[in-house]
Amino acid sequence: MQIKPGDIALVTGASQGLGVHIARALAQRGVHLVLAARSAAALEQVASTLRTAANAEVITVPTDVADPAALERLIAAATERFGRVDILVNNAGLERTLAYDELPIADIQQMIAVNLTGPMLLTRLLLPQMLRNGRGHIVNIASVAGVMASPYEEPYVATKHGLVGFTRSLRLTAQELKWPVSASVICPGFMDGAGMYEEMKQDHGVRAPLVVGSMHAALLGDAVVHAIETDQPDVILMKGAPRLFVALLALLPRAFEYFSHKLDTASVFRVVAKARNTSGGKV
């Protein structure tokens, strides 16, 4: 779908982190924005910056994506202001790096609700409108954890795998039914400057393993724009040859485990999990 000035995009998780880079990239293309997140104050700060920098029309709608009623209110607000939504970016997400036997049940439930159920419901609620309008694209922000496993991250990995599978299935349905709407999933690796990895760096002094490296978060915004305009099925945003790792996992899972241990790709998550366990899971 070619992005046009005046298109309307709804971006969740837009009050901080990677969502800010996504919103900025879309605003620079002349897209008007509906920004959603839980913090009204943080949302408005982002919106104010975008209005000034990109001359974009931006509204903010404080929303808990884990609440189905809140998702309906979000769509109602977007439709009332702009009449439609052309682009949906499901970006909101939570992580909780901790040994699984220490992980609170409530945290597992919340990650599933925010990372997987929320995007699926929001897509379902917006899809009929996009089909009526004859145009639309859905972008789901997953993670490299959606195509490869990481230790200490079981619910996060499970939800991101689910989001990848959901997107792939949705694309096949769209092609089968010849919808004028499509979907893409983006799987960022370790991103510098914003997001979960940046918080881990600041809080715990960790660094990405050399074998995978890290990339600047601003690249995610460009990747979202490119995925929409070229109808990319999935994008793995990571240095090196990530698809070779994915292929190795699929074809030779024991070999994947061997090299993961040998290269100590778990180092980042081990440090964070240990710190959170020591602090009673409150870090």
Task: Detail the topology: elements first, then pairings.
Layout: E1 8-12, H1 18-27, E2 32-37, H2 40-54, E3 58-62, H3 68-82, E4 87-90, H4 105-133, E5 136-141, H5 154-176, E6 181-188, E7 191-192, H6 196-204, E8 215-216, H7 218-230, E9 234-237, H8 242-251, H9 253-262, H10 267-278
Parallel strand pairs: 1-2, 1-4, 2-3, 4-5, 5-6, 6-9, 7-8
Helix pairs in contact: 1-7, 3-4, 4-5, 8-9
**Mean pLDDT over the residues:** 92
Number of domains: 1
Distance between the termini: 41 Å
Q: What percentage of residues falls in helices of 4 or more residues? A: 40-55%
- Biggest sheet, spatial arrangement of strands: 3-2-1-4-5-6-9
Q: Report the C-alpha radius of gyration, rounded.
A: 18 Å
- CATH first level: Alpha Beta
Sheet bearing the most strands, described?
A: 7 strands, parallel
Specify the overall morphology. Answer: globular
